[in-house]
Design a protein that fits this description.
The structure is a single chain. The protein is an alpha/beta fold and 393 residues long. The protein folds into two domains: 6-53 and 359-391, Roll (Urease, subunit C, domain 1); 55-358, TIM Barrel (Alpha-Beta Barrel), CATH 3.20.20.140. Helix content is 27%, strand content 25%. It has helices at 76-88, 103-119, 121-126, 157-166, 183-192, 206-215, 237-243, 260-270, 323-333, 338-344, 347-352, and strands at 6-13, 19-25, 28-34, 51-54, 56-61, 63-64, 67-68, 91-99, 130-133, 171-176, 196-199, 219-220, 248-251, 274-276, 289-293, 297-301, 307-309, 369-374, 379-386, 389-391. A hairpin with a 5-residue loop joins strand 16 and strand 17. Helix 1 (76-88) crosses helix 2 and helix 9 runs antiparallel to helix 10 (338-344). It binds zinc ion. The site of zinc ion has 5 residues, from loops. Zinc ion binds at residues 133, 145, 201, 222, 226. This is Amidohydrolase family protein. Its cofactor is a divalent metal cation.
Length: 393
């Protein structure tokens, strides 16, 4: 344990590129200041220094390195392992995402996550909340994505309360579709109880989208995905969410889920309201090859990092990439700067969820940060610090 120790780190600030001296005391940044001189004991030129950025915050992730947060039975041990592995990948806070399933399976996953947080301090620190994606989503093909239609249902506050009890209050985000009757009252109750409602997997009318936002929905889940293959040119639910200034937009920037032009448009339209998520499935982190997903679906992970159904290569089987991959994709393609892509994956989602790490690289803020190298093409994570403690592989 190195809690309480003071440490000094020299690195290039991810925004300015300037050498910085970062002092960490215990679990917080004590100071972050420009390093005028060569750091003591280091003969290497400043360009050999790693870059430093705030820890990554993933609002939507279904699993990693073969660990599936939705594959019954989920054990707290799975969450502990995933938390440590994600830290090595630069993720200091995340929202394990529980997707549409039977009521019992959902409850089982929620209980396992809550149990992990009560027994494992690392999980308690890194799991900022649970994202419940479904089952209150559209049953329609396309809109529901890979969620099973038979488990989709109208929003049910009593049921959500039961699940929130099972989750020991950790459900912080609910993705739902406001196409169902009773959506407005449901959204209002969520808001009153501190649960962020995100619109996703929807076939809602533009009017229903507007009503949901007025009732308190604050976010769009992976905008552009979980949508019908064909939509009326206008009006439709994508335009409506793009146009709504009260809705933050989450995007899957893996290069496969939406084209670069769509990412570019959303970033332009949403500006500071745009955020990145991985939406990574359990096969993320594993090498290319043929796999069986959820114990029943044959999938292929290609050399290029795309995950598709084995018998229908045109259909994606989820994202197989974490946030750094998406940062690479956006920065490499010039859609935005590395620093902006990093912010959309760190302090912006942290601020959206009002996490203390929203302060980023500031004195007094939690010392959640990542040392990395940027090749111009790719981010290489070197070390991650969570609450001032070093994580490295
Ligand atoms: Zn989804």
């Amino acid at each position: 344990m190195n809690t309480g120790q003071r440490k000094e780190i020299h690195a290039l600030h991810y925004r300015s590129g300037k050498p910085m001296k970062i002092t960490v005391a215990g679990n917080r940044f004590e100071s972050i200041e420009a390093a005028s001189d060569e750091p003591a004991g280091m003969n290497s030129p400043p360009e050999a220094l790693p870059m430093v950025g705030p820890g990554l915050v993933d609002l939507q992730i279904n699993g990693y390195m073969g660990i599936d947060f939705n594959h019954y039975p989920v054990s707290p041990r799975h969450l502990s392992d995933a938390t440590r592995l994600l830290q090595l990948a630069g993720v200091t806070s995340y929202y394990p995402t529980v997707t549409t399933s039977s009521d019992e399976y959902i409850e089982d996953s929620l209980k396992a996550i809550a149990a992990a947080c009560s027994t494992d301090a690392e999980c308690a620190d890194s799991i900022a909340g649970i994202h419940l994606e479904g089952p209150f989503i559209s049953p329609e093909d396309g809109a529901r994505g890979a969620h099973l239609a038979r488990y989709t249902k109208a929003p049910d506050w009593e049921l959500l309360q039961r699940w929130q009890d099972a989750a020991k209050g950790k459900i912080r985000i609910v993705t739902m579709s406001p196409e169902w009757p009773g959506s407005t009252a449901f959204i209002e109750k969520c808001k009153l109880n501190g649960i962020t409602v995100s619109i996703g997997h929807t076939s809602a009318s533009p009017e229903q989208i507007r009503e949901a936002a007025a009732a308190g929905a604050r976010m769009s889940t992976h905008l552009g995905n979980g949508a019908h293959l064909m939509l009326p040119r206008h009006p439709n639910y994508i335009w409506e969410q793009l146009a709504d200034d009260s809705l933050h937009a989450c995007l899957i920037p893996d290069g496969f889920h939406v084209p670069l032009s769509f990412l570019k448009v959303v970033l332009k339209v949403k500006g500071p309201l745009a955020m990145l998520v991985s939406d990574a499935v359990s096969l993320s982190g594993l090498p290319p090859g043929a796999y069986r997903s959820h114990g029943r679906i044959d999938v292929i992970k290609t050399e290029q990092g795309r995950l598709h159904l084995a018998d229908q290569p045109q259909l994606l089987a989820g994202s197989a990439q974490l946030l750094p991959w998406g940062i690479d994709h956006l920065a490499r393609s010039g859609v935005c700067s590395l620093a902006d892509a990093w912010d959309m994956s760190s302090i912006r989602p942290a601020a959206f969820m009002d996490l203390p790490s929203q302060a980023g690289l500031e004195a007094g803020a939690p010392a959640d940060f990542v040392l990395f190298h940027w090749t111009g093409e790719q981010v290489h994570i070197r070390k991650t610090f969570k609450n001032g403690m070093e994580r490295s592989g």
